[in-house]
Design brief:
This is 3-hydroxyisobutyryl-CoA hydrolase. This protein is an alpha/beta fold. The protein has a single domain, classed as 2-enoyl-CoA Hydratase, Chain A, domain 1, CATH 3.90.226. The protein contains 16 helices and 9 strands. The two termini are 22 Å apart.
Length: 357
Protein backbone atom coordinates (compact mmCIF):
# COMPACT_ATOMS: atom_id res chain seq x y z
CA UNK A 1 0.00 0.00 0.00
CA UNK A 2 1.50 3.32 -1.17
CA UNK A 3 0.46 5.97 1.35
CA UNK A 4 0.80 8.60 -1.36
CA UNK A 5 -2.02 7.01 -3.37
CA UNK A 6 -5.25 9.07 -3.52
CA UNK A 7 -7.18 5.94 -2.51
CA UNK A 8 -5.78 3.53 0.08
CA UNK A 9 -7.05 -0.04 0.30
CA UNK A 10 -6.44 -2.56 3.02
CA UNK A 11 -8.24 -5.41 4.69
CA UNK A 12 -8.95 -5.56 8.43
CA UNK A 13 -10.30 -8.94 9.41
CA UNK A 14 -13.11 -9.51 6.94
CA UNK A 15 -13.70 -5.85 6.08
CA UNK A 16 -12.24 -4.15 3.01
CA UNK A 17 -11.36 -0.61 4.07
CA UNK A 18 -11.35 2.15 1.42
CA UNK A 19 -9.71 5.41 2.49
CA UNK A 20 -10.03 8.54 0.35
CA UNK A 21 -6.55 9.98 0.69
CA UNK A 22 -6.28 13.57 -0.47
CA UNK A 23 -6.55 15.30 2.91
CA UNK A 24 -5.09 18.62 1.74
CA UNK A 25 -7.87 18.76 -0.88
CA UNK A 26 -10.48 17.57 1.63
CA UNK A 27 -10.38 14.23 -0.18
CA UNK A 28 -11.99 15.73 -3.29
CA UNK A 29 -12.71 13.08 -5.90
CA UNK A 30 -10.98 12.93 -9.26
CA UNK A 31 -11.51 10.46 -12.07
CA UNK A 32 -8.67 8.14 -11.04
CA UNK A 33 -10.13 7.88 -7.52
CA UNK A 34 -13.57 6.99 -8.84
CA UNK A 35 -12.11 4.24 -11.03
CA UNK A 36 -10.05 2.87 -8.15
CA UNK A 37 -12.99 2.77 -5.74
CA UNK A 38 -15.11 1.05 -8.38
CA UNK A 39 -12.43 -1.58 -8.93
CA UNK A 40 -12.10 -2.09 -5.16
CA UNK A 41 -15.83 -2.76 -4.90
CA UNK A 42 -15.72 -5.21 -7.78
CA UNK A 43 -12.88 -7.09 -6.08
CA UNK A 44 -14.66 -7.09 -2.71
CA UNK A 45 -17.84 -8.38 -4.28
CA UNK A 46 -16.02 -11.36 -5.79
CA UNK A 47 -13.96 -12.13 -2.67
CA UNK A 48 -15.87 -14.53 -0.42
CA UNK A 49 -13.56 -13.76 2.48
CA UNK A 50 -14.80 -10.14 2.55
CA UNK A 51 -17.91 -9.56 4.64
CA UNK A 52 -18.30 -5.80 4.20
CA UNK A 53 -16.79 -2.62 2.80
CA UNK A 54 -15.96 0.44 4.90
CA UNK A 55 -15.23 3.89 3.47
CA UNK A 56 -13.57 6.73 5.38
CA UNK A 57 -11.61 9.88 4.60
CA UNK A 58 -8.00 10.62 5.51
CA UNK A 59 -7.26 13.51 7.84
CA UNK A 60 -9.42 15.23 10.43
CA UNK A 61 -11.54 17.50 8.23
CA UNK A 62 -13.96 15.24 6.44
CA UNK A 63 -14.84 12.25 4.32
CA UNK A 64 -14.97 14.14 1.01
CA UNK A 65 -15.73 17.71 -0.03
CA UNK A 66 -17.03 16.62 -3.44
CA UNK A 67 -15.64 16.42 -6.93
CA UNK A 68 -12.43 18.17 -7.93
CA UNK A 69 -14.19 21.39 -8.91
CA UNK A 70 -11.07 23.22 -10.05
CA UNK A 71 -10.35 20.53 -12.61
CA UNK A 72 -13.94 20.64 -13.85
CA UNK A 73 -13.74 24.45 -14.06
CA UNK A 74 -10.55 24.32 -16.09
CA UNK A 75 -11.97 21.65 -18.39
CA UNK A 76 -15.18 23.62 -19.03
CA UNK A 77 -13.30 26.86 -19.56
CA UNK A 78 -11.03 25.20 -22.12
CA UNK A 79 -13.98 23.66 -23.96
CA UNK A 80 -12.87 20.14 -23.08
CA UNK A 81 -14.91 17.07 -22.24
CA UNK A 82 -13.01 14.93 -19.75
CA UNK A 83 -15.45 15.97 -17.00
CA UNK A 84 -18.24 14.20 -18.84
CA UNK A 85 -16.23 10.96 -18.68
CA UNK A 86 -15.61 11.57 -14.98
CA UNK A 87 -19.31 12.02 -14.27
CA UNK A 88 -20.20 8.95 -16.33
CA UNK A 89 -17.96 6.75 -14.17
CA UNK A 90 -18.85 8.57 -10.95
CA UNK A 91 -22.59 8.07 -11.41
CA UNK A 92 -22.05 4.42 -12.28
CA UNK A 93 -20.09 4.12 -9.03
CA UNK A 94 -22.98 5.71 -7.11
CA UNK A 95 -25.34 3.09 -8.57
CA UNK A 96 -22.91 0.29 -7.73
CA UNK A 97 -22.73 1.45 -4.11
CA UNK A 98 -26.52 1.49 -3.81
CA UNK A 99 -26.80 -2.05 -5.19
CA UNK A 100 -23.68 -3.49 -3.54
CA UNK A 101 -24.60 -6.97 -2.24
CA UNK A 102 -22.53 -6.78 0.94
CA UNK A 103 -22.85 -4.22 3.76
CA UNK A 104 -21.37 -0.88 2.72
CA UNK A 105 -20.50 1.21 5.77
CA UNK A 106 -19.77 4.92 5.30
CA UNK A 107 -18.22 7.05 8.05
CA UNK A 108 -19.59 10.51 7.22
CA UNK A 109 -17.39 12.38 9.67
CA UNK A 110 -16.60 16.04 9.06
CA UNK A 111 -17.33 17.65 5.70
CA UNK A 112 -19.36 15.51 3.29
CA UNK A 113 -20.50 17.44 0.24
CA UNK A 114 -21.50 16.77 -3.36
CA UNK A 115 -19.54 13.76 -4.58
CA UNK A 116 -18.83 12.88 -0.94
CA UNK A 117 -22.56 12.34 -0.48
CA UNK A 118 -22.51 10.15 -3.58
CA UNK A 119 -19.93 7.73 -2.14
CA UNK A 120 -21.60 7.55 1.27
CA UNK A 121 -25.33 8.27 1.41
CA UNK A 122 -26.24 5.46 -1.01
CA UNK A 123 -24.67 2.93 1.33
CA UNK A 124 -26.35 0.51 3.73
CA UNK A 125 -25.00 1.85 7.01
CA UNK A 126 -24.27 5.58 7.14
CA UNK A 127 -22.65 6.96 10.26
CA UNK A 128 -22.52 10.64 11.19
CA UNK A 129 -20.76 12.37 14.08
CA UNK A 130 -20.97 15.70 15.90
CA UNK A 131 -18.48 17.03 13.32
CA UNK A 132 -20.55 16.08 10.27
CA UNK A 133 -21.53 18.85 7.86
CA UNK A 134 -23.45 17.42 4.91
CA UNK A 135 -24.55 19.41 1.88
CA UNK A 136 -25.37 19.45 -1.79
CA UNK A 137 -23.98 22.94 -2.54
CA UNK A 138 -24.27 22.89 -6.33
CA UNK A 139 -26.64 25.83 -6.90
CA UNK A 140 -23.98 28.12 -5.43
CA UNK A 141 -21.57 27.27 -8.26
CA UNK A 142 -24.04 27.30 -11.13
CA UNK A 143 -24.50 23.54 -11.12
CA UNK A 144 -27.34 21.13 -10.27
CA UNK A 145 -27.30 18.48 -7.50
CA UNK A 146 -25.98 15.23 -8.94
CA UNK A 147 -24.48 11.87 -7.75
CA UNK A 148 -28.03 10.81 -6.93
CA UNK A 149 -28.54 13.92 -4.80
CA UNK A 150 -31.90 14.73 -6.34
CA UNK A 151 -32.99 11.14 -5.58
CA UNK A 152 -31.96 11.49 -1.93
CA UNK A 153 -33.30 15.01 -1.42
CA UNK A 154 -36.48 14.23 -3.30
CA UNK A 155 -37.15 11.41 -0.83
CA UNK A 156 -36.60 13.56 2.27
CA UNK A 157 -39.67 14.24 4.44
CA UNK A 158 -41.95 17.00 3.21
CA UNK A 159 -40.01 19.74 1.44
CA UNK A 160 -36.81 19.49 3.48
CA UNK A 161 -34.89 18.29 0.44
CA UNK A 162 -36.11 21.22 -1.65
CA UNK A 163 -34.96 23.61 1.05
CA UNK A 164 -31.49 22.06 1.20
CA UNK A 165 -31.13 21.86 -2.58
CA UNK A 166 -32.07 25.48 -3.28
CA UNK A 167 -30.27 27.12 -0.34
CA UNK A 168 -27.25 24.76 -0.55
CA UNK A 169 -27.29 24.73 3.26
CA UNK A 170 -25.17 22.21 5.17
CA UNK A 171 -26.77 20.14 7.93
CA UNK A 172 -25.39 18.42 11.00
CA UNK A 173 -25.94 14.92 12.30
CA UNK A 174 -29.50 15.16 13.61
CA UNK A 175 -30.79 16.86 10.47
CA UNK A 176 -28.98 14.38 8.25
CA UNK A 177 -30.78 11.60 10.12
CA UNK A 178 -34.10 13.45 9.79
CA UNK A 179 -33.62 13.89 6.04
CA UNK A 180 -32.71 10.24 5.47
CA UNK A 181 -29.10 11.00 4.52
CA UNK A 182 -27.69 8.96 7.42
CA UNK A 183 -28.68 6.14 9.77
CA UNK A 184 -26.66 6.35 12.99
CA UNK A 185 -24.94 8.95 15.16
CA UNK A 186 -21.64 7.85 16.68
CA UNK A 187 -19.52 10.34 18.66
CA UNK A 188 -16.23 10.91 16.86
CA UNK A 189 -14.16 9.67 19.82
CA UNK A 190 -15.78 6.25 19.39
CA UNK A 191 -14.98 5.84 15.71
CA UNK A 192 -11.63 4.11 16.17
CA UNK A 193 -13.20 1.52 18.44
CA UNK A 194 -16.07 1.00 16.02
CA UNK A 195 -13.75 0.47 13.05
CA UNK A 196 -11.65 -2.00 15.03
CA UNK A 197 -14.69 -4.02 16.09
CA UNK A 198 -16.17 -4.05 12.59
CA UNK A 199 -13.08 -5.93 11.41
CA UNK A 200 -14.12 -8.89 13.54
CA UNK A 201 -17.68 -9.09 12.22
CA UNK A 202 -18.52 -12.10 10.10
CA UNK A 203 -22.10 -11.33 9.04
CA UNK A 204 -24.24 -8.39 8.06
CA UNK A 205 -26.27 -8.82 11.25
CA UNK A 206 -23.11 -8.59 13.36
CA UNK A 207 -22.05 -5.41 11.56
CA UNK A 208 -25.43 -3.77 12.12
CA UNK A 209 -25.47 -4.81 15.79
CA UNK A 210 -21.94 -3.47 16.33
CA UNK A 211 -22.80 -0.08 14.85
CA UNK A 212 -25.93 0.12 16.99
CA UNK A 213 -23.89 -0.55 20.14
CA UNK A 214 -21.61 2.36 19.35
CA UNK A 215 -24.44 4.68 18.36
CA UNK A 216 -26.24 7.15 20.60
CA UNK A 217 -28.91 9.86 20.18
CA UNK A 218 -27.68 12.77 18.08
CA UNK A 219 -27.52 16.29 19.53
CA UNK A 220 -30.63 18.30 18.66
CA UNK A 221 -30.82 19.60 15.11
CA UNK A 222 -32.48 22.66 13.59
CA UNK A 223 -34.77 21.57 10.77
CA UNK A 224 -37.48 19.82 12.80
CA UNK A 225 -38.50 23.10 14.40
CA UNK A 226 -38.88 24.73 10.97
CA UNK A 227 -40.89 22.02 9.21
CA UNK A 228 -44.12 24.06 9.12
CA UNK A 229 -42.81 27.00 7.09
CA UNK A 230 -40.44 24.86 5.05
CA UNK A 231 -43.21 22.52 3.89
CA UNK A 232 -45.62 25.39 3.28
CA UNK A 233 -43.24 27.62 1.34
CA UNK A 234 -41.33 25.08 -0.70
CA UNK A 235 -44.33 23.18 -2.03
CA UNK A 236 -44.93 26.08 -4.44
CA UNK A 237 -44.60 25.33 -8.14
CA UNK A 238 -41.90 27.86 -9.05
CA UNK A 239 -38.73 29.26 -7.51
CA UNK A 240 -40.24 32.76 -7.71
CA UNK A 241 -43.29 31.69 -5.71
CA UNK A 242 -41.13 29.87 -3.17
CA UNK A 243 -39.13 33.05 -2.58
CA UNK A 244 -42.32 35.10 -2.33
CA UNK A 245 -43.79 32.71 0.25
CA UNK A 246 -40.54 32.74 2.25
CA UNK A 247 -40.50 36.55 2.26
CA UNK A 248 -44.17 36.81 3.28
CA UNK A 249 -44.03 34.11 5.97
CA UNK A 250 -43.00 36.50 8.72
CA UNK A 251 -40.40 33.98 9.92
CA UNK A 252 -36.85 35.40 10.14
CA UNK A 253 -35.29 32.06 9.22
CA UNK A 254 -37.52 31.86 6.14
CA UNK A 255 -36.52 35.34 5.04
CA UNK A 256 -32.88 34.32 5.49
CA UNK A 257 -33.50 31.30 3.28
CA UNK A 258 -34.98 33.56 0.59
CA UNK A 259 -31.90 35.77 0.69
CA UNK A 260 -29.63 32.73 0.43
CA UNK A 261 -31.54 31.40 -2.57
CA UNK A 262 -31.38 34.72 -4.38
CA UNK A 263 -27.58 34.56 -4.26
CA UNK A 264 -27.53 31.34 -6.27
CA UNK A 265 -27.50 30.84 -10.05
CA UNK A 266 -31.02 31.59 -11.36
CA UNK A 267 -30.68 28.91 -14.02
CA UNK A 268 -29.36 26.32 -11.57
CA UNK A 269 -32.22 27.09 -9.17
CA UNK A 270 -34.94 26.53 -11.76
CA UNK A 271 -33.32 23.39 -13.14
CA UNK A 272 -32.77 22.05 -9.62
CA UNK A 273 -36.41 22.51 -8.63
CA UNK A 274 -37.53 20.76 -11.80
CA UNK A 275 -34.99 17.97 -11.30
CA UNK A 276 -36.20 17.33 -7.74
CA UNK A 277 -39.85 17.19 -8.75
CA UNK A 278 -39.08 14.92 -11.70
CA UNK A 279 -36.89 12.66 -9.53
CA UNK A 280 -39.82 11.90 -7.25
CA UNK A 281 -41.67 10.40 -10.19
CA UNK A 282 -38.76 8.48 -11.70
CA UNK A 283 -38.58 5.87 -8.93
CA UNK A 284 -35.21 4.20 -9.27
CA UNK A 285 -31.84 5.72 -8.47
CA UNK A 286 -30.61 4.60 -11.90
CA UNK A 287 -33.31 6.60 -13.68
CA UNK A 288 -32.47 9.66 -11.59
CA UNK A 289 -28.75 9.31 -12.33
CA UNK A 290 -29.58 9.16 -16.03
CA UNK A 291 -31.48 12.43 -15.61
CA UNK A 292 -28.66 13.99 -13.62
CA UNK A 293 -26.17 13.09 -16.31
CA UNK A 294 -28.26 15.10 -18.77
CA UNK A 295 -28.40 18.12 -16.46
CA UNK A 296 -24.68 17.89 -15.71
CA UNK A 297 -23.70 17.66 -19.38
CA UNK A 298 -25.80 20.71 -20.18
CA UNK A 299 -24.56 22.70 -17.17
CA UNK A 300 -21.01 21.97 -18.30
CA UNK A 301 -21.62 23.99 -21.48
CA UNK A 302 -23.22 26.98 -19.73
CA UNK A 303 -21.36 30.03 -18.37
CA UNK A 304 -22.67 29.80 -14.80
CA UNK A 305 -20.57 26.76 -13.86
CA UNK A 306 -17.26 28.42 -14.78
CA UNK A 307 -18.36 31.71 -13.21
CA UNK A 308 -19.65 30.09 -10.03
CA UNK A 309 -16.46 28.14 -9.40
CA UNK A 310 -14.41 31.24 -10.17
CA UNK A 311 -16.31 33.31 -7.62
CA UNK A 312 -16.52 30.70 -4.87
CA UNK A 313 -13.34 28.66 -5.21
CA UNK A 314 -10.72 30.38 -7.36
CA UNK A 315 -10.94 34.16 -6.89
CA UNK A 316 -13.14 33.78 -3.79
CA UNK A 317 -14.72 37.20 -4.30
CA UNK A 318 -18.16 35.62 -3.64
CA UNK A 319 -19.58 37.88 -6.35
CA UNK A 320 -20.67 35.68 -9.26
CA UNK A 321 -22.10 37.34 -12.35
CA UNK A 322 -24.78 34.90 -13.38
CA UNK A 323 -26.06 34.68 -16.96
CA UNK A 324 -29.01 35.08 -17.12
CA UNK A 325 -28.81 37.34 -14.08
CA UNK A 326 -32.39 36.98 -12.83
CA UNK A 327 -35.01 34.30 -12.37
CA UNK A 328 -37.38 36.17 -14.67
CA UNK A 329 -34.92 35.79 -17.55
CA UNK A 330 -34.76 31.98 -17.25
CA UNK A 331 -37.52 30.57 -19.44
CA UNK A 332 -39.27 27.22 -19.36
CA UNK A 333 -37.55 26.41 -22.65
CA UNK A 334 -34.16 27.14 -21.05
CA UNK A 335 -34.95 24.66 -18.27
CA UNK A 336 -36.28 22.02 -20.65
CA UNK A 337 -32.96 21.93 -22.51
CA UNK A 338 -31.29 20.47 -19.42
CA UNK A 339 -33.55 17.41 -19.59
CA UNK A 340 -33.32 16.80 -23.33
CA UNK A 341 -32.14 13.30 -24.35
CA UNK A 342 -28.45 12.99 -25.21
CA UNK A 343 -28.82 10.41 -27.94
CA UNK A 344 -25.90 8.00 -28.05
CA UNK A 345 -24.28 9.89 -25.15
CA UNK A 346 -26.92 8.82 -22.62
CA UNK A 347 -25.71 7.26 -19.39
CA UNK A 348 -28.27 4.48 -19.78
CA UNK A 349 -28.23 3.07 -16.24
CA UNK A 350 -31.99 2.59 -16.06
CA UNK A 351 -31.90 0.49 -19.21
CA UNK A 352 -29.02 -1.65 -17.95
CA UNK A 353 -28.88 -1.31 -14.13
CA UNK A 354 -26.24 -4.00 -13.77
CA UNK A 355 -23.74 -2.09 -15.91
CA UNK A 356 -22.03 -0.18 -13.11
CA UNK A 357 -18.43 0.91 -12.79
Amino acid sequence: MNHGDPVLLHTQGRVRHIILNRPRALNALNHAMVVRVGAALADAERDDSITAVLITGAGERGLCAGGDIRTIHDDARAGGGTSLDFWRDEYRLNARIARFPKPYVAIMDGIVMGGGVGVSAHGDIRVVTERSRIAMPETGIGFVPDVGGTHLLGAAPGELGTHLALTADAVGAADALLCGLADHFVPSQRLDGLITELAGCGTAAEIEETVRRYASPAPQGELAAHREWIDSCYRADTVEEIIDRLDRSGVPAAKGAAEAILGKSPTALKVTLSALRRARGLGSLEAVLDQEYRTSCTAFTRPDLVEGVRAQIIDKDRDPRWSPASLAEVTEADVALFFAPLGDRELGLAAAPGATA
